[in-house]
Amino acid sequence: MRRKHPDQRLFRFTVFAVVVAACTLVLCALQGIFGYPFRKTIALVTTKFVRVEGSAYSAPLLAQYTPWGAQAASARLYEDTTVSSLYSQRATSVSRFGKGIFSFPEKGQLLFSASDNSDPRTNGRNYRIEVPRRLSKGVLPICFIAWLMTVTIHLLTSPDREKALLTWRERAGFVLAAVLRLVGTWPAIALSIPSIYLLFFYPPLWKDVDALGQLTAPASVLNILHSPPLYCFPARIPFLITSWIANIWMNRSLYGVFEQQQPSLEGIFLLVIVQHIALISALTYTVVSLTSNRLSGAF
User: Domains plus CATH for the chain?
Assistant: First the structure.
């Protein structure tokens, strides 16, 4: 029976350590940026709810479970079986608008509202909050250092160091070339990543009163002469589409382009999606035009 050489066993162990360290680094990066996959659901006690103002109510939350940064956008508020992902950085949005909007104004505090702006202390519903598990700020650097050390040890303990370095370089070059070819052929893939992130993790809440007035107010001097009509009225088409669909199923009222608008949440989402598609298309056209002109000039 053949026995494995100690150097061969050490080499396989270092390869295994490199893979484990790389997977740990990726998981910690995903958790630190997006708040997935490690989550915790915390039941909210009704007797501890305190009214703040408007539709906002405060609930205590352990400081260690209070999300921060981009992680907060991945939190989910549960009202019985209803799930709300309407996180807002502004606490005033919770009190002024409500409708399931929630915020984390400070550590150890959750500010939320009921889906129908009722009193959560007396409406008989159960509330819970799903939050990402927070990572210490030093976790990602430690994981990166561990991954770098395992790669270094793997190279130092390799029987043929030069061949191992050449193999790593070839594999890294192959992966980098494949990514560059994909991005170069389809630049819209890379350009759409910020838009996809915003659409998935941030609600389409407007803070600009001027833009909101242009899109909802009826046709008048203010939005025909004072503002560009090309934005004020074609931007209402998504509102009309969603209202028309809702009219078929739920018998909602239809509003003309020049009338006072009462957009639904679906209409606002459709408008924002159309705007992101237009942005990605414009950026893709710009990138392709610039690179094509540069390549043609080189020849």
Answer: 6-33+138-175 (no CATH), 41-132 (2.40.30), 196-298 (no CATH)
